[in-house]
Structures are given as C-alpha cells and as structure tokens.
C-alpha cells in the first residue's frame, strides 16, 4: 500500500479531492491530523509547505488528510457556488471519513483564515478533538476580506479605463447579496458575509483543550504581534492549554515565489510531543 493515497470523498455539494498520508511508521493509523486550508490564492501558494509538513507528521506516526474545499483545487464545483455552510459541512464530511478509516483521535491544523472555518465548525461539532495547530491565524474575518477586496481596487487603479472603486463599496455589494469578482475569484455573498462576522473575540474551542499557535515574523526583533497576544490571553482565560511559537521566516502564503520555512515545520512537529 502506498504511503500517500489520493481519494475523492463524497460531500454535500460535490466530491472532495483529498490526499491521505498513511503513517510512515507502517502502523495502523489511530490518530490523524486534518488540514483546514487557507483562502483563495493563499491556499495555492502554501501547497508546498503543507505537503512538506504532512510528510513530517506522517514520519511521527500520524495519518494526515489534506483536502480541497468545495469549488477549490481538484474538488468538484465552482468557487462561485461555494457558501460558508457548504465549507463547514465539508469539514464535517472529511472528519467522518477519517473516523470511518478507524481514526480515534483527530487534531485540526489550520492556515490563516482556516482557523475561522475551524472555529465555526467546532461550534456544532459532535466529536472531541485532540489538539489545534494554528499557523498564522487570521483574527478578524472582516479585516481579512477588506484586504482581499483591495486587490480589485488596486487593479482598477492600474487600469486607466477602469472605474475607480472603494473596498467599502464592494463590501456593501456583498452585504446587499450581490456577487463580487476579485482577482479571478467570484465571491458568493453566502460565503463571504458569514466569514466577515468571525473574529478572535468570539473564537471558542470548547471541544479542544490543547492549542498551539504559530506566528511567523520577519526578524527576531519583531516579537509576538498584539493580536496574537490578545488571542492567547483570551484562550488561557477559558482554561485552554495554549502554547505560542514564534518563527522567523517569510510569509509563504503570499510571497511572489513559492517559499519554504523549514523551521516552522520543525517546531510544529516538536509541538506534538
């Protein structure tokens, strides 16, 4: 049996493409790590790092599932048809698939806005999870989407024939139930509006006790950002066991060229012990 297995998992809105890593130890998998991906182009930019990390998890005896949400990657559907409820259901679907494979303990591993999807999913989840690994968590869905909308505003500024736009106007179009296209992605209001309502103050991980937060910084002098500090304090007040890991490295999810941060991979594996 190959240690890496591509699979299509039947989902609510369409089949979900996934890569399943068996434990490299050759043992029958009892514990697994499920990756909750980043948004849009950040997901594509991060694929190499995600694959590298998955292989290291497998070497440590974990099964790992990397999947594409509905309308993204090699999963069925169009991005323009994706809604937040569909994506939440996708997470539920792949969790159930892992359980059907005999997995007893599932940990979640998010990148960027994936933490907000994981958080919202956990509100209604029926199972207990082992731990949460958060890579560079997005702490405010509205700010995140406003930054994404500015990509279209910037593109319009570069095109002298284009009508000038404001991110706030594009946001209002979404709130009014209209579809907005940004950087080649057609945004459904039922995908974006729920995401904009999520932020760190209402992050609750009631079904996870052990949480590891990883923040990348450009230099040792930077230190932990105020937003991450606030998140850590909030989680600790709710009796979560929280560890924060600061890693010097490039923002691989947004760099022009595909980038690697080996130290992040090392620290993430070490956090499991």
From TrEMBL:
Keywords: Hydrolase. Residues 33-101 form the Xaa-Pro dipeptidyl-peptidase-like domain. The keyword Transport does not apply. GO terms for molecular function: hydrolase activity. It holds the Pfam family Peptidase_S15. The keyword 4Fe-4S does not apply. InterPro entries: AB_hydrolase_fold (IPR029058), Hydrolase-2_PEP (IPR017532), Xaa-Pro-like_dom (IPR000383). This is Hydrolase, exosortase system type 1 associated. It comes from Candidatus Methylobacter favarea.
């Amino acid at each position: 049996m190959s240690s890496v297995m591509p699979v299509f998992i039947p989902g609510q809105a369409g089949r979900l493409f996934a890569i399943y890593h068996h434990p490299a130890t050759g043992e029958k998998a009892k514990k697994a790590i499920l990756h909750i991906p980043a948004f849009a182009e950040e997901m594509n930019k991060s694929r190499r790092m995600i694959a590298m990390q998955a292989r290291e998890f497998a070497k440590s005896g974990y099964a790992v599932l990397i999947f594409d949400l509905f309308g993204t990657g090699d999963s069925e559907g169009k991005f323009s048809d994706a809604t937040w409820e569909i994506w939440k259901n996708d997470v539920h679907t792949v969790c159930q698939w892992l359980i059907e494979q005999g997995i007893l303990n599932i940990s979640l591993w998010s990148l960027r806005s994936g933490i907000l999807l994981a958080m919202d999913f956990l509100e209604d989840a029926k199972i207990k999870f082992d731990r949460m690994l958060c890579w560079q968590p997005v702490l405010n869905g509205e700010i995140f989407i406003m930054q994404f909308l500015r990509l279209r505003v910037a593109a319009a500024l570069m095109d002298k024939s284009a009508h000038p736009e404001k991110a706030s106007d594009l946001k209002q179009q979404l709130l009014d139930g209209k579809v907005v296209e940004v950087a080649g992605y057609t945004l459904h209001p039922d995908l974006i509006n729920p995401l904009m309502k999520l932020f760190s103050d209402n992050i609750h991980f009631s079904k996870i006790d052990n949480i590891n937060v990883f923040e990348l910084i450009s230099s040792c002098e930077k230190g932990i950002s105020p937003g991450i500090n606030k998140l850590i304090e909030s989680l600790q007040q709710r009796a979560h066991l929280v560890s924060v890991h600061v890693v010097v490295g490039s923002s691989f999810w947004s760099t022009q060229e595909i980038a690697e941060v080996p130290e992040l991979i090392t620290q993430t594996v070490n956090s499991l012990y």
